């Protein structure tokens, strides 16, 4: 995979296009604050990351879409993605395969996702099914190498290329170091689909071996203690009535005959189903009768309470009647009305209202007493009926409870019967299994099984060594030694220190290590010093890796983007424009040697490798001038001056781009 063009679309529909040459060295040279270092995150975004991570400034204000034209072999494709708002991510994308050309702004539309882009590119690159499975005892999950992981070997950012603490792109990000270590074996060819197939074969072999070893162990136990096991089974069969009582067989043949007799008896091993419907009906009936008895008892209590109240009422009425009746002892007021017999006052013979009222009250009381006397028999009759009904219900309840108890006992017996049948079935199954194993466990079969187990164990051990994590790591280190030898040759061309001392890439620490008589010296421990060595070994490692990937047809994009490899030769003041004429002759020669090495490696690979260098430096040599694709000096930059005028503001108009 190589890059043909990077395209920026403004919010007004204008297009900015940067073209690159395939299989060549491409240099974008220019001053600081021109947008060179933004190209790497933009390319990563177009290849499937969540955000372009553009800096605050005119890029965010002016760009609405990013585009990338690239190819893998004869397949051309164009990826475009909208610029997300600051601080956000998006999965929206557009993918065109073999397009007629670069689309215009009004032709842009979302038809894919970032996940789809990554999956498409992985398939296009030929990334096979793979997985790095940690050794037993390690807690991290298995990890499959994907297209995203192949980009570790395609970029060296400004903060990475001269950083002795890291060797690979994004190595210092969260979890990235372990991810590089887990996926490098696949990309370098130490692990691939063949290893996955081998792992699956190993899993099947181990499963077969486990089953075979279990059978062997069972047969050996049968052979060693077969008679004792048979005698135990005979005792169990007798305890459940499956075999008549008798003496214990003392030979294998007699025991086998007894066990065969158990199986030949054709026992009914099907437990009868328990009928619970009648039991449940009786429980419901008992509950109904209890409720009915309780209701009738409550009615009787109410009648008793009523009778008690009626009795008290009758006593009170009788008491009132007695007091009023005593008035009959007085003279007839109608005939002897001259004087009151009680108070001796004179009376009016014609005034009989009091006597009439007394006579009326006495009549009312007599009537009420007669009513009370009439109700008493009816209450007594109703109470008797209720009492008889209660006795009938109680008798019915007692009968129901007896039926429930009888059914419960029957169910208990049926449960015991079912348990007995289950145990008979279990014992019959054990006898069947034992006799089958005993028949298969003859001496000849046992020896054959032992031989098969040993053969399968040898196959399993050989395959386990092949897919073992330590074996994969050993193959990775072996292949990295090939890369390291080539890296050492490149380092010697640059005149780097320790180039002839067995310098190599350490796959465990992901750094450069030099083997000295006094012991190893690591770049990430600053035991390999100077900025030229740090930059030089980063370049040499990446060039050697890409050469190896190309020659061995590994699924890694065949481009590298180096951001500012000559930074170690220029002052740290960002306002310095980085003119090579300002450098001392030695530094100028070293800076030139970096570009010359890149150009020579690219040329030696005959178009298979594309290198894009973003740098301040520019040399007058013809081969360098031929490699320059853009110069960003003065007003020229990633963002055209016309866009700056349209989308800039007063605070940033003096700076072409805020970086």
UniProtKB/TrEMBL annotation:
The keyword Coiled coil applies. Keywords: Coiled coil. Pfam families: DUF3732. It comes from the Bacteria. Residues 195-222, 279-306 form a coiled coil. This is DUF3732 domain-containing protein. It comes from Rhodococcus maanshanensis.
